[in-house]
Amino acid sequence: MMKKIINTLVYLSTPLLVLSLLLVFFYAPEEKNQGIVQKIFYFHVASAFAMYAGFGLAGLFALLYLWRRQISDDCMSHAGATVGLVFCTMVLVSGPIWAKPVWGTWWTWDPRLTTTLLIWLIFFSCFLLRRFFGQNPKGKIAAAILTLFGLVDIPLIFLSVKLWRGIHPSVLGQEESMPVEMRITLIVSLISILVFFFVLYFLCYRFYQLKEEVEGGIS
Amino acid sequence: MFKKIFLFVRMEGHLFSSNGEAALSSFFFVFLILILFSIGSFFKGGATHQQATILIWLAVLFGAILRMNRTFESEKEGEVTDILRMEKGALIPFFLAKLFFNFLFIVILEIVTLAFVILFFNPTDLLRYVKLSFLPFFMGAFGLAVIGTTFSGMIISHHRRDLILPVICYPLLMPVIAGVMMGLSYSAEGMALTVNPFWIKLVGIADLIYVVVSLLVIDFLME
């Protein structure tokens, strides 16, 4: 069943990723002021959505693990945190590449940038915590709790820009903010990256599940 | 509930006074940090009040973690936490008593560090500005105490807890650390915190979130 899901997602994500690349480079117009570097936007925003999906799933399954104590929930949470961390890294790397020519600096302690980095640090510490505990069941509980702490920080990211004006732009939700070609390209990029996210997520889940079986954590 | 909290606070008070070496180590560590800064001649001709307040906060951050790591030292042996879990409604007062003493300890550590900083760095006009810095220091101490107490309980039985606690605490404390440092910078410039309230609001929200989540997961922490 899992193999079937993964295969279907792989078959779906490959053409979608190719299509989004074509749209980004040949269909979406070049932004007048920022030039070619603005194309990063499509991957940056889509990666941010995938990051939220990963950390959201990690938090949801961490909660379920604390409640039901099923190893599969822990594997789901672990997979969400891992893939979320990968996409968070992509956001943090692509952001400065875009920021340098536009803002004139690689990094600024803007609220949204700060909170994204904070979440990366929290989930990286969660990753380290799991390594410290190894197969000890207490490590799974500790990781679940730390994940929940990380999760409650995520709304701060959304709130920070809205409530405490930073220089980070908030293009989504503003009807007039971009031409229709850019909007279509962004939507296709979002879908393709999210499908790709689920490919990685289920692969990662399967990996952790097999690891548990091999190392005796599951019967 | 309040009676239970009072009983646990009293018990914790006894434990705190009888187990002074962890607290002493923290004071000593802070002292060492300040000596290293002083020998390194980072602030030639005396530190500014801004540098002095941030130095106090950083020294406290590093020093307090030593004491945090020993929060549940007395309960490590035997089955104290198991018994507490069986007693209905005992865990929250127990946790709050631990939290109270950790908070108290950090506040004392901040005052002692302030004295050390005055002694070593001869900061200009520090005492005049320190009352403006009271709120960031106070809120920072509370956030540090909540996270330190919570996660120290979680890793109580791990043999590498000295390594784990800073690794998991500092990232979680980042909004508190950054917020306090920014708040201190503004107050050291003689500005009221209302001039740029973002950072102090961030500390307040983080403190609130951490204390609520800690109380919600307290049962799992003590497993």
The oligomeric status of these chains comes to: heterodimer
Largest sheet of chain A: none
What characteristic shape of chain A results from the CA principal axes?
Answer: globular
Overall strand count of chain A: 0
Could you list the spans of chain A in which at least 5 consecutive residues all have pLDDT below 50? Answer: none
Taking the sheet with the most strands of chain B, its summary is: none
Q: Give the N-terminus to C-terminus distance of chain B in angstroms.
A: 22 Å
Question: What's the helical proportion of residues of chain A?
Answer: over 70%
Main traits of this protein?
heterodimer, A: 219 residues, 6 helices, B: 223 residues, mainly alpha
Structure description:
The complex is a heterodimer of chains A (219) and B (223). Chain A is mainly alpha-helical and 219 residues long. Helices cover 79% and strands 0% of the residues of chain A. Chain A has one domain. Chain A has six helices and no strands. The mean pLDDT of chain A is 84. Chain B has one domain. Chain B is built from eleven helices and no strands. In chain B, helix 8 runs antiparallel to helix 9. The longest helix of chain B is centred in the middle third of the chain and has 31 residues. The model of chain B has no long low-confidence stretch (mean pLDDT 81). Chains A and B meet through helix 4 and helix 5 of A and helix 9 and helix 10 of B.
Fold blueprint:
The complex is a heterodimer of chains A (219) and B (223).
Chain A: H1 2-27, H2 40-68, H3 71-103, H4 111-133, H5 137-163, H6 180-214
Chain B: H1 2-18, H2 20-39, H3 49-68, H4 73-76, H5 80-86, H6 91-121, H7 126-130, H8 134-154, H9 161-188, H10 198-216, H11 218-221
Helix pairs in contact in B: 1-6, 2-3, 2-6, 3-6, 3-8, 3-9, 6-8, 8-9, 8-10, 9-10
Provide a compact summary of the structure.
The complex is a heterodimer of chains A (219) and B (223). Chain A is mostly helical. In chain A, 79% of the residues lie in helices and 0% in strands.
